[in-house]
Amino acid sequence: MLKEEKIHIVIAEVSPVLSSGFSQCLRRLPGVQTNVIEVKTLDDLTDCVRGRTPDVVLVNPTFGGMFHPAQFRAEFIGRDFKIVAIEIGKLSKQATALYDEVVSVIDDTETISRKFKELCLNSGDAHEGKDTLSQREKEIISLVVKGLTNQEIADKLFLSIHTVITHRRNIARKLEIHSATGLTIYAIVNKIVDIAEIKL
Asked: What's the pTM?
């Protein structure tokens, strides 16, 4: 995910205090070069991601009234970026599950640095092969093994059923797994889903 040894981050936050604070913190992360852009509106965020795919979108869950990660990803099929929530109050487990990571306004620099490094820098050698799957494909695997139909997955992720079917074909090709049982085992072993989430 690294581009010229840099992490490209877009901060979507209307509060200048929070936006500038995170921007300054991220620019000073030890051992990481960061390119940070701050945006204040959903249109600006969309234009920014469309112009150059960032590695990370750091966003307040209330951005634009209420930010919907799955719906936002659906606008950029084929683009691989992480979405990180800015936690001001305590987010519910359901809300945090929609994001790749959560960064709290009370996190110290060391914690923020660790989270961003784990999110952006560890997707290469150690997980080569497994991480050829995009975040969207992992989301779809998770929903498939939980028993959702293609139409239910499409509705949940704000996609067309054709797009879901295409993703499933790509998953089968990449993993060389063509059965629901095989996909379930893969998802559990690679921690895409917890075994407790699966209806047996």
From this structure: 0.59
